[in-house]
Structures
1.
Amino acid sequence: MSRLTLLFVPLISLSLAACNGETDDTSGQVDTDTDTDTDTDTEDTTSPGDPSTMYVALGAHAVGHTVLDAPAMDLEIKAWYPAVDTVGAADIEYSTAAKFMGMPDESMSIYGAAHRDATPGTGPYPLVVLSHGFGMNPEWYPLAEHLASHGFVVLGPEHSDFDWAADIVNATVARPADISATIDLAEGDALGGAIDATHVAVVGHSYGGYSALAVAGARFDLESLATRCAPVEEPFTRSYFCDPFLGAGDELADLMGLDETPTGLWPSLADSRVDAIVPIAGDAYLFGDAGLAEVTVPAMMLGGTADTGTPWDWGTGLAFDAVSSDYRVLVGLEGAEHFAPTTSCDNLPFMDNLDEFSRAYICEDPAWDKNNSLDVINHLTTAFLLDVLTQNAAAATALDGSLYTESGRLDVQVIRD
């Protein structure tokens, strides 16, 4: 059974609160404004305007979608990209693999807004690799379409992990390899040369956030994890963050091709081609302070302060405090939960097959309206990646934390050493 499925069990009270109560007032948050002309193949022409909202709206590019294969890795890679020669509406129904209990079929639909198999623009466009959460799919994240509209190619490898108990140790090594294979594909002639694989970022949610940290150079420190886990008695944390890893040193070492199980910091799974990362509610506990300090690329750590799927001190907050990046950003959505970055459940028709508690945990947030949390994540992630990968001066102004303090619901901290 997947972590995604079992996550709901200890969180019933939170789910009921989300179902039975109204979300908090959303005043002071980033506004929604998605009207834009997307039928051009021009560079990003977003008007500077108000830096606190300039990337909420879709960008100037129409968005194409296709599926690529990496045969050497037996890996399917979903692609979103700036497109030309589009015809008709951009409504699309993605068909994705069903990876958690409650699904009656082997596949399920997710609704989005992209033109299937449209012709890519000439680019070349900077590359963003999107690493989805454990037991999920790349299509869960409207951020992929949003970034493509602003002039990025987004490639989302379909990680094969499904069952946390059975798959997590293998996934811990396989996922960084999937990301590297995706960059390999981008360096070839994927999308007709539309990809600039010399400017690469990795964005990941949940265990995808772990994956982003790993390919950026974070190193395992199982001794640190044992110390962190020693006083933990709470069943969810113990079952998911501690027990699966503390007895798995030999297996991890074998999967990594090591002759013996390391002590202290483990060898890196980094990919030197990665220029920046955005872990969203990213699992960071495997690395500890010393392992996270090995990360030096620009990094934006983003998450909800009330996240119970990857608690702040085991994920977003831990990573921000410990990485060595000269340029690092912290984005805290006050009171937000684990599924803040996923698409509205209006786009997830299979939610009707889940029980009430599960639907509530995915579909509702105890503090944020889903559209507002997505606006914040889309806006700030786009600004950060435009700043880092394209040196867009206007984008850097959107990362000024003072722009967001009045709301009392969004904490943005920027450190440039």
2.
Amino acid sequence: MVLCLLGGFFLTKAQVQDTVTLVLSLDSAKQVAMEHNRTLKNASLDVLKAEAVRWQSIASLLPQVTTSLDYSNMLGYEMDMKGIIIPMPPSGVFGITTSIAISGAQIVSAHLGTIAMKMADISQRQTEQQIGNQVKSIYYSILVMEQTVDLLEQNLANIEKLYETTLKSVEVGVAEQVDADQLSVQVATMQTSINATERSLEMLYNSMRLQLGIPADYPIVLSQSLDELINFESALNLLAEEFVIDNNYNYQLVKENTRQAKQQVNLNAWSYGPTLSAAYQYSAKKYFTNAEGMMNMTPPNAISINLSLPIFSSGKNFTTLKAAKLDYEKQLNTLADTEESLYIQHSELRYNLSSAFETYETQKKNVEVTQRVLTNISNKYEHGYASSLDVTNSGTNLITAQNSYVQALLDLVNAQIALEELLNK
């Protein structure tokens, strides 16, 4: 049974055992990764965590309310005040206290929490971009490997046909055994290349399963071909794209780190600032025995206001503030270096993409030529105008050309992905 994956559709491992096959287009593969990739899930959790920490800082600026209930029993003790006996009956006190404390450091901490939440959000979007690009790269790699296996199997079939023909020729004395032996080596070499490519293909499928967050034994079929996906015009258009550095996630993170370092300076500067606190307390005392006329010294209402200002900290606040300022200067240098390096990286990635396209075009022609050469040599060999060594050499050249073509195609795809990631496309 074959199911087409739509949106958030996800199957459990138990269903995999029923030989369900997952048919994936590139877009649906990305969608599954966005919903089930565990690295991306952790990035989402980091956003929620940053938001919770931010609200912790905000909550410290808001009034805090506590309640208490106390019970005391003097076990019949009576106080003797110069002949006046005062009983000490059991009693309970119910209290509610509302307090608030405000300082500049708390306000700065709230700002730091906002910056941390924004950084977590940027990191999540960057992770989404990276996961999507990894899925795209693996998807293309699988298609290229499958195409390679098909080409190798076609070549193997041709070589095997020549080998069978040569064996018959040897039997009738028209060809020598050494010719058949050379072709058998070529057949074995081709089969080894196919086996190695199929193992690499299975590793790529496992990498895809890991990105999608699905079990290792989950059958996958890719529904799109290279011809459908590869758009050389779109890739080359990237060369003319303007690089807006503020769109780059790495730059955004470094920029927010710089803001964070600046706020750390402000936070430590407020260690010299005052703290204003206020509290209101309500208390109600209840005696549990007949205590008429008892003196109640517990005030029902009380208000307190406090303003504190640090005077001397033995240089601790000064050195902490100085360290924060130095960190901020370092972060400014890092920001400047990042900006320059990203512009340089943009130039390098444009060069890489242009070179990768030229190499791809060359290797594509090379494969076409070596394929024609092998076909031509094979025909000549069948008619006795070429040796088995010529067939072997042309077959080896074709394998080399195909490997170079595969690498050139992957380099082109990866160069395009790298430039798209830098440009945040």
3.
Amino acid sequence: MTERKAGLGLRGVFVRYVGRMFVTRFIGLLIFFIVILQMLDLLNNSTEIYAADGADWRSIVNYIALRSPQIASQFAPFAALLGVVATLSTLNQRSEITIMRSAGMSAQRVLRPIGVVCLMIVIAHVAFHEFVVVRATERLSYWEANDYAVNLPPQKETRTNVTFANGEEFIDAASAAREDGVTHLDDVIIYKLNDDGLAETVEEAERATFQAGVGWVLENVRTLSVLGNEVIRQASKPWETTLDPAILFAVTLKPERTSIPTLLAQIRELRRNSASVSNEMTSLYSRLSKPLATLLMPLLGAIAGYGVMRSGAQLMRAATGAAIGFAYFVSENLMLALGKLGAVPPIFGAFFPLAIFLIVGIALLVAMEN
């Protein structure tokens, strides 16, 4: 009985030891990614930030505060993968895994503390993305659209860089805003398409305004007939279109800048009007599938901790574990893109790579156990 208690105590010490080792490496790698990528990002954008009137070092600090959460959310699973590889490689180099396996611990028991920490990271990742990243992304996009202006007023219900198709029209606008029941589109270009999908006429307007009971009105309009090569200028004219402002704001809502409740409302609005929701549904599912990838990393990186310790063999196993994880991220991005385009069902695009690599990870773990 005394020996059994001693064994359980040893295993408890090992679990805490491995958990702390993984947490330390994960946090260190995540900070490394944030610092390096933030520096590279600033090299590309610092000139535009300082070009705004009155910009100073506080503009740079504000940019870092809004951009860093995006980097942290994006690279958390990759930091977890490298953290797993580094942790297990260190334990194998010190023969600590061999000792614990000799003491009767299975490969699953060795990986359990890392899995528990990864589960905590997943929960924190979901909450962090929903309450921090979404808001930071929305504010940063609004700031970028206004050329990093200093003392920018609070954002209203506004869309920037609006581009979408509506029936036989293709519409491009610099911005769309809605206030007190009135909808405005600024710097509008309307392409009227024929049955072959080619532009017959192009209308450019300084502004398009929608009011209930009045409809759409274009201001300062210039109409170009592609076939007749004729330009007609008008101070204003009615815009004969089926464009619904509610659909306009639902279609142009960016999922990455949207909270889950707002995204669900957008999906309901689009479905009510029989519009495609592939992009929105895939983005919704990815809110869960991307953080869940962290739970997959102990399985994909486990190959780094098992096998006979030889010169060069450990490095090869660590590189193999990292390569398998990198292959997962490539396939994840590919399937998400296909899901957003509607080429595959949204749930398939979000969770198929997770399911396939889960099977691969379990197969590797069973092979190492045997």
